[in-house]
UniProtKB/TrEMBL annotation:
Residues of the Disease resistance R13L4/SHOC-2-like LRR domain: 313-528
Span of domain Leucine-rich repeat-containing N-terminal plant-type: 22-66
Record-given protein name: Leucine-rich repeat-containing N-terminal plant-type domain-containing protein
Compartment(s) where it occurs, according to its Swiss-Prot or TrEMBL record: Cell membrane
GO CC terms in record: plasma membrane
Length: 1063
C-alpha cells in the first residue's frame, strides 16, 4: 500500500534534467559518503552506486526535484543502510524535502530529533527500519504531514519503538492535516479513552493502522466522529470490549481489522451492511458473539473472516448475494444447519474455510467458483456421497480438507484430475471405495494424500499408482486386504512419508521382495498394528529413513543390530511387540537417534547404551533386571522424557542423573530400586515436571531441596519406605497438581502448609503414620481445584474440621461448570511433551477394592478419610459437596445422626459410613441418590425402618448388618408362630456381636452375676434398671448357649427384642 502511495505522489513531481543545483548535489554526495551499510550486503546493488557528480542529481535513482532544482523527494528504502542518519546528518539540510522514504533499513538507534528541520515534509516513511526508543516530540512539529508511517514489522525485546513520554496525544496534536497514520508495532500502552481521545482532533484522518501496539480498551463510541475513516486496522491489541454500534456510522469504511483483540459482547450486525466495506476481519476473538444479517445484493465485501469466535446460528441463504466475495473464513465457530446451496453463486471465491463448526447435510457444489484455491470443510458433520461433478473444472484448487465428517460412498474420481491439487485430506470419514471406473485422466500433481480412518477396501485402482508426484500417503485404519494391490505402492518412488497402520497387511503386502531402491526418498514409515511378524528386511537399506514406527505388531525375538546403523534415523518406535533381546554386541547407539520407544516388550538383560543426544527414551514394561548405570547422566544431556518403569531394576538412583539438565519427565516406578532419593533430584524441580518413583524400596527422608522456581506438577512417591516429615520446600511447587505419598512410613501432622498450593488436585497420604487433628490455622488460601483427597489408614483424630472443608471449592462447583469440564481431559491427566504422552495413575480403594485411575477426568471427585480416629458428628459442610462421587468415612469413631442434607450429594456413586457409632434413623433423603451404586452403613447403632426406594432395596443385606435396631428390606423377613412378620438381622454368632467381654475374664463372673440376678431381680422396680437387667441376661445366655440369638420383631410399628433358639 505504501509503495503505491509513493508512486502516486511521485506522479505530481516534474523531474527536470539539468536543473540540479550545485548545493543540492553537494549535499547528496556528502550524504552518500556518510552512509554505511550492513556488512553482509553487496553495496553494488544500492541506488547510491549511481550517484555520480558527473550526472544531473535530479536524474539519480531515488531523487526527485522541483522546477527550480531543489530536491523534494528522496527514496532510500530497502537499502539495508545501517548508519549515517543521526542528528549530524546532512539529510536535515535538504530543507525543501516534501517526501522522505527510509523504510526497510537497519539503523538500530533512536529516531533523530532534527526531523523538525524538514518542515515541508508531507510524506515521511520510517517503517521497519529498526529504529528504537522513544519517538521524539519533534515529529509533532511537522504540521504539513499527510502521511506518517512509523510502523514496525518486527522487533527484538528491549529494542522496541515506543510512544510514552511524550504521549500519543502530544505527538499527534499538531498533525491536523494527517490522513494516513501507520503506527503498527509501536508500543503505546494506552487505555482506550486515552488513545481514542488523542485521535479525535485528526478530522481528516482516513487510514488508521495501529496493530500490535499494546493498546487497551474500551473502544470509545466517539471514534465514529472521525467520519472520513476508511481504513481501521487495530488487530493484536488487548481491547477487551464490545464493538460500539456507532461503528456503523463509518459510511466510507472499506477495511476493518479487529482480529485477535479479545473483543467481547455481540458484534453489531449493521456493520456488515456498510456498502463500501470490502474487508472485515474480526477473527480470533473467542468471547465475541454474533449472527449474520441478511446480506444485500449490493454488497461489496471481498474478504469476510470471523473464524475462532462465538458467531453461530444458521448461515443465511443471502450469503450468496456477496458476489464479490473472494475469501470467506467461518472456521471454529458455532454455525449449524446445512451449508446453503447459494454458496455456489460466489463465483469469485478464492478461499473458503468452514472448518470446525456443526454443519450437517450434504456438501454443496462449488464447480462455479473457478478461482477457488483452498477448500476447508473438515471437522463438521457433513454426510452423504460427494458427486464427482462437484469438483469438475476447479483447476486452480490446491488444497481440499474434508477430514472428520461422515461422508460415505465412493471417493470422487474427479479429484484426481485437478491439475493444481497439492493437498487432499479425506481422513476420518466413511468412504468405502473408489469410484468403480478407473481414473482415466490422472493429471493431478498431488503431494499430500490422506485417506486414513475410512472403510476403504476392495479393488485399489491401478491408475492410482500413476500419482508419481506423491510425497505423503496415509492409508491407515482402513480395511485394506484381500484383492488390494498394495505391492504396487513401491512404484511411488517420490514418497517421503508412508503410513499403512492399522491394516491387516501381513498376507497382502510382500515386504520381503521390496527392492532397496523402491523408496529412494522415504524418510517416515509408519506400520503400526499391521500384524507384522518380522522386521521388513528392506528397511536395512533405507539410508534416508528418519522416523520408523513398527509398534503394536507381532514381531518376536531379537532386535537386529543393523537397525542402529541407519545413519539418519531420528525416531524409532518398536513398542508393544514380543521382542526379547537386543542383538549384540551393541554398537554405540546412533548419535542421531533422539526418540527411542521400546516399552511393552519382553526385553531382558542390562539396559542398552543410551544415545548421546537422546531426547525421549521409554524402556518401560520390559524385563530389564540390572542396576541403573552410575554414569547414566553422561548420556542424558538433551533428554526431556525418560521412563524405566515396570522392570526389575535394582540398586540405587545414581547422582549423575541430575546432570540431565533438560529432563521434564522421569519415571522409575515399579522396580526394586533402593537407597535414598538423591537431594539433587529435587533441586532439578525448576525443570522437572513429572517425577514418578512409586512402588520401589526407597527409604530415608524426602529431600527438602525443592527450588523456589519449582515446576513440578506431578510428584508420585507412593509405595516406598520413606519416613520423616513432608518437606516444607514443597510449597515452592506452586504448579503442583498431583501429590501421592501414600503407603510409606511418613510421620507428620496434617500438612496445612500445602494449602499454599492452590492448583493441587490430587492429594494421597493414605497408609502412613500421620497423626493429630486436621484443623489448620486461619489462612486466606483455598484448595479450589482439589478433587481427590485420600488420607485413609493413618492416626488422624479429633473432629472433622467444618470451616476447613468449606474451602474445598471443587467439590461444590456448579453443575454447568462441571458439564463444561466433562468434555475435556485436563492437562494433568494426559501430559504432552513435544512427541510424548505421559499418563498419571492414582490408586484409591473404591467399593472395598483397590482401583487404579489412569486417565482421570476432571469431574471425578473422591474423599477417603477411612481407618483413622475421627470422632464427633458428620459435618453439615460435607453434605454441601454436591459434586462428590466417592465418600468413605468408615472405621472411625463418628457419632450422631446421618445428616438429612445428604440428599444434596446427588452425584454420589459410593458411600461408606461403616464401623462407626452413628445412631438414629437412616434419612429418607438417601433414597434420592440415584447414582449410588455402593452403600455400606454396617456396624453402627442405626435404628428404624430402612427407607424405601429402588436404589436402596437393590443393595445387599450386608450393607446394613450390625445395626441392632434396623428393619425393613433388604433385610430378610421371617414369620413368627403368632403369624406376625418380623425382620431378622443376618447376625453372626455371638462372638461376632458388638460385645466387649472376653471369655477369659468371665469364667467365675458369669455364675456370680447370674446368681445375683436371680436373687435381687424382684427388687429392681425401676423401668430403666429392668431394661438393663434383661439385656444383660440375654447377652449372658447368648454367650453361654451359642444356639441362641436375638431377633428384632415388629408389632404394630414398634420393634421388640426376643430370644430364640436356633436349629
Amino acid at each position: 500500500m505504501m509503495s503505491l502511495h509513493w508512486l502516486c505522489l511521485c506522479n505530481h513531481v516534474l523531474v527536470v534534467s539539468g536543473l540540479c543545483l550545485d548545493e543540492q548535489r553537494s549535499l547528496l554526495l556528502q550524504l552518500k559518503k556518510s552512509i554505511t551499510f550492513r556488512d553482509d550486503i553487496d553495496k553494488r546493488s544500492s541506488r547510491l552506486t549511481w550517484w555520480n557528480a558527473s550526472h544531473d542529481c535530479c536524474s539519480w535513482m531515488g531523487v526527485t526535484c522541483d522546477l527550480k532544482g531543489h530536491v523534494t523527494g528522496l527514496d532510500l528504502s530497502e537499502e539495508f543502510i545501517q548508519g549515517g542518519f543521526d542528528n549530524s546528518s546532512v539529510l536535515f539540510s535538504l530543507q525543501h524535502l516534501q517526501k522522505l522514504n527510509l523504510a526497510f533499513n537497519d539503523f538500530h538507534h533512536e529516531i533523530p530529533a532534527r526531523f523538525n528541520k524538514l518542515d515541508k515534509l508531507s510524506y515521511l516513511n520510517l517503517s521497519t527500519s529498526s529504529f528504537m526508543g522513544q519517538i521524539p516530540i519533534e515529529i509533532s512539529q511537522l504540521t504539513r504531514l499527510v502521511t506518517l508511517d512509523l510502523s514496525v514489522q518486527y522487533f527484538r525485546l528491549g529494542h522496541e519503538l515506543i510512544i510514552k513520554n511524550p504521549s500519543l496525544l502530544k505527538l499527534v496534536q499538531n498533525l491536523t492535516s494527517i490522513r494516513q497514520l501507520y503506527l503498527d508495532g509501536v508500543i503505546i500502552s494506552a487505555s482506550g479513552h486515552e488513545w481514542c481521545n488523542a485521535l479525535l482532533p485528526l478530522h481528516d484522518l482516513q487510514e488508521l493502522s495501529m496493530s500490535g501496539c499494546n493498546l487497551s480498551g474500551p473502544l470509545v463510541p466517539s471514534l465514529a466522529t472521525l467520519k472520513n475513516l476508511s481504513v481501521i486496522v487495530l488487530y493484536w491489541n488487548n481491547l477487551s470490549s464490545p464493538v460500539p454500534q456507532t461503528f456503523a456510522h463509518f459510511k466510507d469504511l472499506t477495511i476493518l481489522n479487529l482480529a485477535s483483540c479479545r473483543l467481547t459482547g455481540t458484534f453489531p450486525q449493521v456493520v456488515f451492511n456498510i456498502e463500501t466495506l470490502s474487508f472485515i476481519d474480526i477473527s480470533n476473538n473467542d468471547n465475541l458473539h454474533g449472527f449474520f444479517p441478511d446480506f444485500p445484493l449490493s454488497g461489496s465485501l471481498q474478504t469476510l473472516k470471523v473464524g475462532l469466535t462465538m458467531f453461530g446460528g444458521a448461515l443465511p441463504h443471502s450469503i450468496g448475494n456477496m458476489r464479490h466475495l473472494a475469501e470467506l473464513d467461518l472456521s471454529n465457530c458455532g454455525f449449524k444447519g446445512r451449508i446453503p446451496n447459494s454458496l455456489s453463486n460466489l463465483t469469485e471465491l478464492i478461499s473458503l474455510d468452514l472448518a470446525s463448526n456443526n454443519f450437517i447435510g450434504p456438501m454443496p457444489p462449488f464447480d462455479m467458483a473457478k478461482n477457488l484455491t483452498s477448500l476447508y470443510l473438515y471437522n463438521n458433520d457433513l454426510s452423504g456421497t460427494i458427486p464427482s461433478s462437484h469438483f469438475e473444472g476447479l483447476h486452480n484448487l490446491e488444497s481440499i480438507y474434508l477430514s472428520s465428517n461422515s461422508f460415505t460412498g465412493a471417493i470422487p474420481s474427479s479429484l484426481f484430475t485437478l491439475r493444481s491439487l497439492r493437498e487432499l485430506w479425506l481422513d476420518f470419514n466413511q468412504f468405502d471405495q473408489f469410484q468403480l471406473e478407473e481414473f482415466m485422466n490422472v493429471s493431478s500433481s498431488i503431494l499430500d494424500l490422506d485417506l486414513s480412518c475410512n472403510n476403504l477396501s476392495g479393488p485399489f485402482p491401478t491408475s492410482f499408482f500413476q500419482l508419481t508426484t506423491l510425497s505423503i500417503l496415509k492409508l491407515s485404519s482402513n480395511n485394506l486386504n484381500g484383492s488390494t494391490q498394495l505391492n504396487k505402492l513401491w512404484e511411488l518412488k517420490g514418497l517421503d512419508l508412508l503410513d499403512l497402520s492399522y491394516n491387516n497387511l501381513s498376507d497382502n503386502v510382500n515386504f520381503t521382495n521390496v527392492e532397496p531402491s523402491s523408496f529412494p526418498n522415504l524418510t517416515t514409515l509408519t506400520l503400526i498394528s499391521c500384524d507384522l511378524r518380522n522386521f521388513p528386511v528392506f528397511l536395512r537399506s533405507l539410508s534416508t529413513l528418519v522416523s520408523l514406527d513398527l509398534s503394536d505388531n507381532q514381531i518376536q525375538g531379537i532386535v537386529p543390530n543393523w537397525i542402529w546403523k541407519l545413519h539418519d534415523l531420528y525416531s524409532l518406535n518398536i513398542s508393544q511387540n514380543y521382542l526379547t533381546h537386543l542383538e549384540g554386541p551393541l554398537p554405540n547407539l546412533n548419535s542421531n537417534l533422539n526418540n527411542l520407544d521400546l516399552h511393552c516388550n519382553k526385553l531382558q538383560g542390562p539396559l542398552p547404551i543410551f544415545a548421546k543426544y537422546a531426547m525421549y527414551l521409554d524402556f518401560s514394561s520390559n524385563k530389564f533386571s540390572t542396576f541403573i548405570p552410575q554414569d547414566i547422566g553422561n548420556y542424558l544431556s538433551q533428554i526431556y522424557f525418560l521412563s524405566l518403569s515396570n522392570n526389575t531394576l535394582h540398586g540405587s538412583i545414581p547422582d549423575s542423573i541430575c546432570n540431565a539438565s533438560q529432563l521434564q519427565v522421569l519415571d522409575l516406578s515399579i522396580n526394586n530400586i533402593s537407597g535414598i532419593i538423591p537431594p539433587c533430584l529435587m533441586m532439578m524441580s525448576d525443570i522437572l515436571e513429572v517425577l514418578n518413583l512409586k512402588n520401589n524400596n526407597l527409604s530415608g527422608f524426602i529431600p527438602n531441596t525443592m527450588t523456589a522456581a519449582c515446576s513440578l506438577w506431578t510428584l508420585d512417591l507412593h509405595g516406598n519406605l520413606l519416613d520423616g516429615p513432608i518437606p516444607k520446600s514443597i510449597v515452592n511447587c506452586s504448579k503442583l497438581e498431583v501429590l501421592d505419598l501414600g503407603s510409606n512410613q511418613i510421620i507428620d501432622g496434617f500438612p496445612c502448609f500445602l494449602k499454599e498450593i492452590s492448583q493441587l488436585r490430587i492429594l494421597v497420604l493414605r497408609n502412613n503414620k500421620f497423626q493429630g487433628s486436621m484443623r489448620c490455622a486461619k489462612t486466606n488460601t483455598t484448595w479450589e481445584m482439589l478433587q481427590i483427597v485420600d488420607i485413609a489408614l493413618n492416626n488422624f483424630s479429633g473432629q472433622l474440621p467444618r470451616k476447613f472443608l468449606s474451602t474445598w471449592k471443587r467439590f461444590i462447583i456448579h453443575n454447568e461448570v462441571v458439564e463444561k469440564l466433562a468434555k475435556n481431559i485436563d492437562r494433568w491427566s494426559l501430559f504432552r511433551t513435544i512427541s510424548a504422552y505421559y499418563q498419571i495413575s492414582v490408586s484409591i480403594t473404591k467399593k472395598g477394592l483397590k482401583t487404579d485411575l489412569v486417565t482421570i477426568l476432571t469431574i471425578y471427585t473422591c474423599i477417603d478419610f477411612s481407618s483413622n480416629r475421627f470422632e464427633g458428628p458428620i459435618p453439615e459442610e460435607l453434605m454441601e459437596f454436591k459434586e462428590l462421587h466417592f465418600l468413605n468415612l468408615s472405621n472411625n469413631a463418628l457419632s450422631g445422626e446421618i445428616p438429612s442434607t445428604i440428599g444434596n450429594m446427588r452425584q454420589l456413586e459410593s458411600l461408606d459410613f461403616s464401623q462407626n457409632s452413628l445412631n438414629g434413623e437412616i434419612p429418607v433423603q438417601i433414597a434420592s441418590l440415584t447414582f449410588l451404586s455402593y452403600l455400606n452403613l454396617s456396624f453402627n447403632h442405626l435404628v428404624g425402618k430402612i427407607p424405601t426406594g429402588t436404589q436402596i432395596q437393590s443393595f445387599q443385606a450386608s450393607s446394613f448388618e450390625g445395626n441392632n435396631g434396623l428393619y425393613g428390606s433388604p433385610l430378610p423377613s421371617v414369620e413368627n408362630r403368632n403369624g406376625t412378620n418380623s425382620w431378622m438381622l443376618p447376625q453372626q454368632k455371638c462372638g461376632k456381636l458388638v460385645c466387649t467381654v472376653d471369655w477369659n475374664f468371665i469364667s467365675v463372673e458369669v455364675g456370680l452375676v447370674f446368681g445375683h440376678g436371680i436373687v435381687f431381680g424382684p427388687i429392681l422396680i425401676w423401668k430403666g434398671w429392668r431394661i438393663w437387667y434383661w439385656k444383660l441376661i440375654h447377652k449372658i445366655l447368648c454367650w453361654i448357649f451359642p444356639q441362641m440369638y436375638l431377633e428384632y420383631v415388629t408389632q404394630r410399628g414398634q420393634p421388640y427384642t426376643t430370644l430364640r433358639w436356633g436349629h
